[in-house]
Amino acid sequence: MPNRHTAPKAFTCVHKDTGHRETNFGGLIYSANTVFLSRSCFTSQVKLNCWKCKKLLDRTPSFFCDSCKSIQPPEEGTSYFKIMDCDYTFTLDTQKLQTRYFQLQRTLHPDNFGQKSVKEQEYSESQSALVSKAYKTLLKPLSRGLYMLKLEGMHLKESTDSVAESQFLLELMEVNEALDEAQTPEEVNKIAQDTKGMLNQRKMKQILAPKD
């Protein structure tokens, strides 16, 4: 995982849309009740138009055009959390996730587009497959956590260190759960300090580890 052994540096990020202030410790951002990995404070969205009637699509992602009701192609780069209408958090509501999955598949499944144009059939197959992949990825804690790291530009290597990497991931997820349960700013600050200590400890282990 790139830079995970770098000594934590604290800085503050203020979201331009909400004014919400968050503090970053070595890539771990924490606010009043949540912590997540982040490399960027801001995101941008590109407005798209319907491929058929050319009207502006108001929602992201848009599975269907509100004007002509035509199915739309998958939007490149849309996160699985947006597709499944879930909060960007490790401790998401899996029951809500499952409900969303069945709702989408009832409308997007290729069986519903047998009498439509070839293009619409192709879009249906692509959308249905993407929803299935998003659902399977977010359903299980480990694949969900790995995907969250991937969104932030951090990838676990497929190597003999995979067990250690997975353990590090689980440690980060435990920080999430602890912050969810924190009731006071003092508790949040203690968790932040413990997290900094954990990152420093892993840095020292990396330094002292024997070289191949």
From TrEMBL:
<dbReference type="InterPro" id="IPR036386">
    <property type="entry name" value="HscB_C_sf"/>
</dbReference>
<dbReference type="Pfam" id="PF07743">
    <property type="entry name" value="HSCB_C"/>
</dbReference>
<comment type="similarity">
    <text>Belongs to the HscB family.</text>
</comment>
<dbReference type="InterPro" id="IPR001623">
    <property type="entry name" value="DnaJ_domain"/>
</dbReference>
<dbReference type="InterPro" id="IPR036869">
    <property type="entry name" value="J_dom_sf"/>
</dbReference>
<keyword id="KW-0143">Chaperone</keyword>
<dbReference type="InterPro" id="IPR009073">
    <property type="entry name" value="HscB_oligo_C"/>
</dbReference>
<feature type="domain" description="J">
    <location>
        <begin position="78"/>
        <end position="143"/>
    </location>
</feature>
<dbReference type="InterPro" id="IPR004640">
    <property type="entry name" value="HscB"/>
</dbReference>
<protein>
    <recommendedName>
        <fullName>J domain-containing protein</fullName>
    </recommendedName>
</protein>
